[in-house]
Amino acid sequence: MMVRALIVDDEALARTRMARLLGADPEIEVCGECRNGREAASFLKSRSVDVVFLDIQMPGENGFDLIETIGVRNMPVTVFVTAHNHYAIQAFKVHALDYLTKPVEEERLTSTVERVKERLESRKGLTELAMRSLLENLDPAKRPSPIYAKRLLLPDGGKTVFLDVDRIEWIEAADYYVCIHSGQKEFLLRESMKDLAITLDPSRFVRIHRSVIVNLEQIREVFREGRGEGTAILKNGRRLRMSQAGWQAVLEASRK
């Protein structure tokens, strides 16, 4: 990842040295250098910055004044760099990531940069999660496509096997387990029907009864009496109970 860094320090030599140290990391781009809080505020309002290395004691507006101007919530990741260690407690009150004292040691800065990258990755993950949640509550056409299982990992005696979901004929609830039927084989899996159903494509696997999920491709015909429960007959001749809600689910899935 490329990290955009801003250096704010009233000492030209200090800015130059910090830029040189940061430049040793190929993932750090020093996108600007400012002499004071006023210049930094203008820069931050017009440019995108990931991290600011901020001196505290400067002529005019100091580092804390800058944070007050921009706002704690709007500040990039902030690392204070100062010759005065008595500001440390105040620095962390404004959520600074780290506090470096001058002259900054290269090894200490390297450690701080790694923490900056970790913080940015964490923020990125939270942003993506928030965006995904937002999309799921907007237009359904814009929602991320769900990913369904193509194979299940199932216990089979003393071994564990992979079973393609295409080979599943039907699934029934069995106390705290589910029993998966495939040809002449039966597999017991310690999982609830609800949790297993979430992993299966609902356009192919339908819950026709509270205790039965069936592969639509395995249904040969359906018998129904009135509007109540009915029976689904599979290609292998197996007869399965089907509720009114199950019948509606079959109809809905068949239209997709």
Characterise the protein shown here.
The chain has helices spanning 12-23, 37-46, 63-70, 88-93, 106-136, 193-199, 244-255; strands at 3-8, 28-34, 51-54, 77-82, 98-101, 151-156, 159-164, 170-174, 177-182, 185-189, 205-209, 212-215, 219-224, 230-234, 239-242. It has 256 residues and is of the alpha/beta class. The strands form 4 sheets. The chain has a 5-stranded parallel sheet. Strands 10-9-8-12-11 form a 5-stranded antiparallel sheet. Helix 3 (63-70) links the parallel strand 3 and strand 4 (77-82).
Task: Please supply descriptive tags for the structure shown above.
256 residues; alpha/beta; elongated; 5-stranded antiparallel β-sheet; single chain; 5-stranded parallel β-sheet
Strand order of the largest sheet: 2-1-3-4-5
* Secondary-structure element pattern, one letter each: EHEHEHEHEHEEEEEHEEEEEH
Oligomer: single chain
Overall body shape: elongated
Low-confidence stretches: none
| Mean of pLDDT | 84
Largest sheet: 5 strands, parallel
Kindly state the number of beta strands.
15
Helical coverage, percent range: 25-40%
* N-to-C CA distance: 41 Å
Annotation field: number of helices: 7
User: Which class do the helix and strand fractions yield?
Assistant: alpha/beta
Radius of gyration over all CA atoms, rounded: 31 Å
Portion in strands: 25-35%
